[in-house]
Amino acid sequence: MASYHFVEQQLGLCLALSSVSAVAAEFVTFPIDITKTRLQLQGEMGVSSSCGAKGAFETTLGIVQEEGFGGLYRGLSPALLRHAFYTSIRITTYEQLRNALQHGGGDNASVSEKAFIGGTSGMIAQVDSSSRQSVTYFCCCF
């Protein structure tokens, strides 16, 4: 019984720490993602260099000048929610599957086993994340 309690604590700790790390990473990298998205939209709209096409640095400065610093974080809340759940589920599922398939207590799983575990944990997390994203979209847009 004590072993089960220890595993339960480790599972909760893994979920919590991976969720916190995912939120921190998303918060730091979100301005880069916003800039990338704006550059992609600029390219899809067919803006040529003579018409004011910008690079990444100019695009970031333009966002800050036109929308303020907060413009770099517009849409952050849904992204944080998605990553907090998706990443924590993916990492925790990967750890649990890897531990269940370990041979002899060591970390000597083959590359194909690790690829299977990674793909499986990613699919499980994506299914959960997709359903959660649909609910978030519905709540925010209707």
Structural commentary:
- The protein is elongated, with a radius of gyration of 20 Å.
- The model has no long low-confidence stretch (mean pLDDT 81).
- Helix content is 79%, strand content 0%.
- It has helices at residues 2-44, 56-67, 76-101, 111-141.
- The chain starts with a helix and ends with a helix.
- It has 142 residues and is an all-alpha fold.
Keywords for this structure?
single chain; mainly alpha; 0% strand; elongated
Show the helix and strand layout.
Blueprint: H1 2-44, H2 56-67, H3 76-101, H4 111-141
Please indicate the percent range of residues in DSSP E strands (runs of 2 or more). Answer: under 5%
Low-confidence stretches: none
Summarize the helix and strand pattern as letters.
HHHH
Overall morphology: elongated
Count of helix runs = 4
Radius of gyration: 20 Å
Content-based structural category: mainly alpha
* Average pLDDT metric: 81
Distance between the termini: 47 Å
Largest sheet: none
State the helicity in percent bands.
Answer: over 70%
DSSP summary, beta strand count? 0
Would you kindly provide a brief summary of this structure?
The protein contains 4 helices and no strands. Helix content is 79%, strand content 0%.
